[in-house]
Design brief:
mainly alpha; four-stranded mixed beta sheet; 54% helix; DUF2268; signal
Length: 310
């Protein structure tokens, strides 16, 4: 896909001076959520000046160090350094060359995000919407979101993960919405020492459920095909592992040729069961975001392996 605009022009189109900061809500800003692209503009200036092969030292000095707070958060959370980016460019140069064109969908993405996040604000008035930082990382993180850290998108990774969702526009909209759901969560279980299969799966599953609630589909759209006819088998195995702190069989284990992350799907099903059984849906959504005890939430959800929810 060829972009219609340069990155600089896209950044100008996405600029929205009236809404920034942790409490800026798209419902109050008709232009849509703030999408910051200064980091990606700067990366491609460095990248082009080096003929597509910038050194680790140059990347650190001219891209990472002078970066935005959002880029620095991504660097801290996902080990993004000049060295790690240089190594990733050497291994997978195509994802860095292709990302420049891929971000041409962002003006349309913001239009759709305005609707999705406004719906979230309607369902959950306490929702907060920090600016979204679009940056370039080390080819490992498509998106990061948290209450204290905001939302960061690794453009080179998200653009290259067609296995998550083949349609690039849908992919951006739903992954960003997923990360905004994480911003609302009281506890980031997966970042805690001793996180369990249950706690991390509920964290990710809640974000998937909220994405479906506000956009009409989960972000990881391959899940229904991967799990069809195996629901009871998968979920029975999940129950046996809920207290394990080794997450590798359930979470963060997808590969392009072998999509997995089944903990996302089971967690989504547990959260959906909780919401489905609740009489007060607004309170149920608050409970989902305010979850602090995964075992108590599971017990109250009414979920069981193989439960029918549609």
């Amino acid at each position: 896909m060829k972009a219609s605009f340069s990155i600089a022009v896209i950044a100008t189109l996405l600029a929205s001076p009236g809404a920034s900061g942790m409490d800026a809500a798209p419902a109050d800003n008709a232009a849509g959520p703030v999408i910051e692209m200064g980091d990606i503009e700067r990366f491609y200036r460095v990248y082009d000046a080096a003929g597509g092969r910038p050194t680790a030292e140059t990347l650190q000095r001219d891209y990472v160090d002078p970066g935005s707070e959002g880029l620095h958060q991504l660097a801290r959370l996902r080990n993004v350094t000049g060295e790690s980016i240089a190594q990733a460019i050497a291994k997978r140069p195509e994802i860095y060359s292709e990302a420049r064109d891929c971000v041409g969908v962002l003006p349309r993405v913001r239009t759709r995000l305005t609707g999705a996040l406004s719906e979230l604000k309607n369902l959950y008035p306490e929702a907060r919407f920090p600016a979204i930082t679009i940056a370039i990382g080390r080819g490992r993180s498509a998106g990061v979101g948290g209450r204290e850290t905001g939302v960061q998108i690794g453009a080179e990774t998200l653009c290259a993960t067609a296995w998550i969702e083949p349609d690039i526009e849908d992919r951006f909209v739903r992954v960003i919405t997923h990360e905004f759901a994480h911003v609302q969560q009281a506890v980031a279980f997966s970042e805690m020492e001793g996180a369990t299969v249950l706690s991390a799966s509920l964290e990710e599953g809640a974000a998937e459920f909220v994405t479906e609630l506000t956009t009409g589909s989960i972000a990881y759209s391959y899940m229904p095909r991967l799990t069809a006819g195996r629901e009871s088998e998968i979920e029975t195995a999940f129950v046996a592992d809920i207290d394990k702190t080794d997450l590798s069989n359930w979470l963060y284990n997808s590969k392009p040729d072998a999509p997995a992350d089944l903990g996302y799907w089971v967690g989504y099903r547990i959260v959906k069961a909780y919401y489905h059984h609740a009489d007060d849906k607004r309170q149920a959504l608050r409970d989902i975001f305010d979850m602090k005890d995964p075992k108590v939430f599971l017990a109250k959800s009414g979920w069981k392996p193989g439960i029918a929810l549609d």
